[in-house]
Amino acid sequence: MLNLLKNGFVNFLRSRHWGVHFRRLPMFEQWASTPVDASISTAMGERLRDAAHAPEQALLQSLNTSRQGLDDAQVQQARAQAGWNTISQDRPMSRAEHLWLCFRTPFNLLLTVLAAVSWLTGDTKATVVIGSMVALATGLRFWQEGRANQAAAGLQALVSNTAAVLRRSAQDEQGQALDALPSRLSALQAVRELPVRELVPGDIIQLAAGDMVPADCRLLAAKDLFLAQSAMTGESMPVEKFAQEPDGAQSNPVELRNLVFMGTNVVSGAGLAVVLSTGNQSYLGALAGKVSAMERGPTAFQMGVNKVSWVLIRFMLVMVPLVLLINGLTKGDWTEALLFALSVAVGLTPEMLPMIVTATLAKGAVFLSRKQVIVKHLDAIQNFGAMDVLCTDKTGTLTEDRISVERHLDAWGDVSQHVLDMAYLNSYYQTGLKSLLDVAVLAHGERAPLVDSHTKVDEVPFDFVRRRMSVVVRDSGGAGKIITKGAVEEILQVSGSVQAAGGVLVLDAGLRQRIVATAEALNAQGLRVVAVATRDTEPGQSNFGVADEAGMVLCGFLAFVDPPKESAAPALQALARHGVKTKVLTGDNAAVTAKVCQQVGITEQHIVLGGDIEQMDDQRLAQVVEEGNIFAKLSPAHKERIVRMLKANGHVVGFMGDGINDAAALRTADIGISVDTAVDVAKEAADIILLDKSLMVLDQGVQEGRRTFANMLKYIKMTASSNFGNVFSVLIASAFIPFLPMLPMQLLVQNLVYDFSQSAIPFDHVDPELLTQPQRWNPADVGRFMLFFGPISSVFDITTFVVMWKVFGANTPERQALFQSGWFVVGLLTQSLIVHMIRTMRIPFIQSRAAWPVALMTLVVVAIGIYLPMGALAPYFKLVPLPGTYFVFLVAVLLAYMGLTQVMKKWYIRRYGWQ
């Protein structure tokens, strides 16, 4: 499994781990004291807007830099103030801290106390048995969780990233001004490829296609610069960035078109930028600091198992003193009574619970690892099963996070192959950096014959002023054609007519209005629209320019979309069948989100916008989160607040996301789910990471979580009920019998052998009907089950007391060994049978059979139970052989016990249900 973890992490360790130190700059000197929220704080937002609107020269002076970059002395000075450009993350736990975390469960602590008391009273055997159980449960959890974390940390160290930085030497202080857009090959300045951790505020960096933005920066120059910032904003489409100062005041600094942020990446084009802030002072760093500082509260699983544990512990704290007092007062030997009470305490404690829980969760982790899922925290598996609401981001989780051609239409909205052909030639023959839209067009279908029948004559490159580009081609007959593709409004400006079925129509005002309405209708469906136009060229013309983009004939539109993952719709349908509601939380706009949700099967849509949430108090939001299923235009703080409110409403909430803006919600949810392509901050906050693109593993994880829970609950129910029955029987026998009904050593051995039989429960089958709905811990149900089924075994224990006393004459202290041997066998075998009776709501052995490990362990325990009083070890345990007629009575008792338990089980299911 270690190899699987390594291979998986290799796939997603492509992004960078940066981290946080603060630098005070003249115009940003108060950033260091700014409180960090899950999104950009008000003060930070104001300073980013100031940086965006400041005149270039004033900004550079405030950063003590120039377009030629910093020299080495300035870099050292800046680093002394700012530190390294790395984002601080959660401090890794030491091995000792991790071991303590794995150990500190209520039962582990209680068992440790009991082991210490046993050692102080000289009961070495009990000390060894109890200590071994604690060590096994703690060690298994420590090993399983530690292995996943070590694989992640080890492979992360292999990642290295660099940035192209302009640095001056001392003699270059009067170097040439850089007014033109630089490229990596420019000789105007010495460009150094430096590790991103070495960047400081004031550095001048170059950006090119494929680069990750290494810090928060202000653009000084840009050429066709498009950035993918879906990880930050949730927008599926690349965003064009410009060097010009923005017009007006943008409320959201992330939307300022002359600022670029750490963690986004360049899709196409090139740029020159000055570093504003690094590390923790960046937007990514602020969010990472917030996430790291968040004290993650207990999950639904942790709270549930602790509540159940304390119900059983409180029961033990009441029953054990009663056993001590009754035996001390009736027998007069307080030392023996104390040892017996201690044995009862061990017997009452479900000491196998930590090991059963850990083994069951580890089994689930192994199952999920085979499905290409990394489980970072074992508790997350059960939370999978208890989850009843899944909140998910859209971009990169439900969608492929790539652009594809959704439609190719003529100007009237009808499908047109001609439009796609013209767009294909345009994208194929352009020589500039191909945008994601061009890649999508070329990937939509192979058109070799079309390309072969045309040759390129010239092209007019794209620029952000006219927002279109053209290529000129000549067909096999020698006819030339200019093909232009670009924004709808820009294409309409250079078009004088429109292609129609019957020919070409003049593009008058009415027709223009109708065409614009068609494009707007496509936009309303969440599609990005590009227009295509053509014009025949003059014979013999070979050189073309912008002036030739005139008198064009509008052919139609291309509509692009970020397609949903193929597995998204069936995965959400499967989750719905198993009682899990899906809510989409995204930073993208409502139209795009609604379109994607419709494609993945969310047809009944109640959309809530982030701006509306901003105006709601918690009471109103508590209602809205129940009613809404699509939440759009959200900030990270909105996402985290929605998840927190759903938890407050009593839901067990999962959150799936992959972006910077998802990290806070991932940390807040009961179970955080991320994907292999997620940013590091998201993967750091997640409990589970999906390495496979298929989302069907979500439903498989839910079912595995429910199997895990069902098997854990089996153990708790059968242990609690049988232990209660035993103690109830002990109290009755102690009050009327002049000797101990069972010696402390015999009670411990019986308990150990019974626990041994339950060690196979993690591998048991689970009835299908127990997997249909979310499951969670309910201490009241466990207590009721214990009080209902425990006395059933006491009925047969008391029957055994009477038979041993009356029929077999075990009614004096001299013959107490026979009495104790008889009850030892009946108690152990009825406890073993309860495993099969309670493991299913069906008829055991007929309608539902246990897995072979459970059946095998039962047979082994039955054999041990009969052998101990009848074999050579009997004297060691102070047991004696039983007469042959006893075994006739034993068979009758076991059959009657099974029959009565099944009858009572049916009544209990009708009255209270089973889970």
Automatic annotation (TrEMBL):
EC number: 7.2.2.14
Family from the record: Belongs to the cation transport ATPase (P-type) (TC 3.A.3) family. Type IIIB subfamily.
Entry keyword Phosphoprotein: yes
Species of the source: Comamonas sediminis
Catalytic activity from the UniProt record: Mg(2+)(out) + ATP + H2O = Mg(2+)(in) + ADP + phosphate + H(+)
This protein's record includes keyword Magnesium: yes
InterPro entries the UniProt entry points to: ATPase_P-typ_cation-transptr_C, ATPase_P-typ_cation-transptr_N, ATPase_P-typ_cyto_dom_N, ATPase_P-typ_P_site, ATPase_P-typ_TM_dom_sf, ATPase_P-typ_transduc_dom_A_sf, ATPase_P-type_domA, HAD-like_sf
Subcellular location: Cell inner membrane
The protein, known as: Magnesium-transporting ATPase, P-type 1
Membrane topology: Multi-pass membrane protein
Transmembrane segments: 99-120, 126-143, 259-277, 308-326, 338-362, 724-743, 785-805, 817-838, 850-868, 880-900
SMART domains, per database record: Cation_ATPase_N
Pfam families registered for this protein in UniProt: Cation_ATPase (PF13246), Cation_ATPase_C (PF00689), Cation_ATPase_N (PF00690), E1-E2_ATPase (PF00122)
Chief location: membrane
Function: Mediates magnesium influx to the cytosol.
Record-annotated Cation-transporting P-type ATPase N-terminal domain positions: 50-123
Superkingdom per UniProt: Bacteria
Swiss-Prot/TrEMBL keywords: ATP-binding, Cell inner membrane, Cell membrane, Magnesium, Membrane, Nucleotide-binding, Phosphoprotein, Translocase, Transmembrane, Transmembrane helix
Enzyme class: translocase
